[in-house]
Amino acid sequence: SVKRLMAPDIANLKGQRPIVSLTSYHAHTAAIADKYCEFLLVGDSLGMVMHGFETTVPVTLDLMIMHGKAVVRGSKRALVVVDMPFGSYEESPQIAFRNAARVMKETNCGAVKLEGGRRMAETIRYLVDRGVPVLAHIGLTPQSINVIGGFKAQGCQREQWEVLEDDARAVAEAGAFAVVLEALAEPLARRITDAIPIPTIGIGASADCDGQILVMEDMLGLSPRVPKFVKEFGRVGEAIEGAIAAYADEVRARSFPSTKHTYEMKSGATGGSPE
Ligand code: KIV
Ligand code: NA
């Protein structure tokens, strides 16, 4: 069996080669992405993509654990990182540890992710010191959407840079193995990438990051609306619609199922077996 990558393996890729990652919420897509990605993120974006919520705020720990288990089962080689959902870690390092430990025990994932820079540094240190590898996430932090007032790019004004650079330094010093930079104006991601010893994983933060991540459904062309930073590498939504339309036509025309997809009697038997 293949050895699964661990958080330090990801950290060690800085300066070696670009880190490839995607979100994944379910077993079959995890198995495919596992062949190409260093890590798979069970992102709380699953609340919007899989469950139709308007933001990530309603996502629960139970939901994250359910999808986390599916992705761990579906993959073999990639590190699986599970997002800590809103409300499960902000209150105190102790509560964060209790919930992160539950996520790790129940899903068998190799790391967790949480949102926030300096304000979460103490918690990151507390978790890492107790055996929980942490992927940090700064810039646009969608769990704070109700405070920010919308999904907006960060660092578009020069005065904001120092705050974001301080956040990046703080999570690196606290022991995060890497940091997601979401929706940062150029060339801030390059400055941060040069300034800290851990890998930066960009989403809408330029090609100067140490790695990239996208929401899988967005890059597949399966999401109805996508942010500016998403490139649609496939047209899976169109492929699904084409297949469903063809199925509906054939059912209505009674041309599906044909004899090829129907069981025959065996001679001497009373019925077919479903193989
Ligand atoms: O939830 C998510 O999908 C994320 C990534 C986009 C970084 O946090
Ligand atoms: Na997330």
Automatic annotation (TrEMBL):
InterPro entries: Pantoate_hydroxy_MeTrfase, Pyrv/PenolPyrv_kinase-like_dom, Pyrv_kinase-like_dom_sf
Binding sites annotated in the UniProt record for 3-methyl-2-oxobutanoate: D44, S45, D83, K113
Cofactor dependency: Mg(2+)
Catalytic residue list: E182 (proton acceptor)
A Pfam family recorded for this sequence: Pantoate_transf
Subcellular location per the Swiss-Prot or TrEMBL entry: Cytoplasm
Pathway participation: Cofactor biosynthesis; (R)-pantothenate biosynthesis; (R)-pantoate from 3-methyl-2-oxobutanoate: step 1/2
UniProt main location, coarse: cytoplasm
Keywords for the protein's UniProt record, in alphabetical order: Cytoplasm, Magnesium, Metal-binding, Pantothenate biosynthesis, Transferase
Residues at which Mg(2+) binds: D44, D83, E115
Chemical reaction(s) catalysed: (6R)-5,10-methylene-5,6,7,8-tetrahydrofolate + 3-methyl-2-oxobutanoate + H2O = 2-dehydropantoate + (6S)-5,6,7,8-tetrahydrofolate
Subunit comment: Homodecamer; pentamer of dimers.
Family: Belongs to the PanB family.
Protein name: 3-methyl-2-oxobutanoate hydroxymethyltransferase
Species of provenance: Filomicrobium insigne
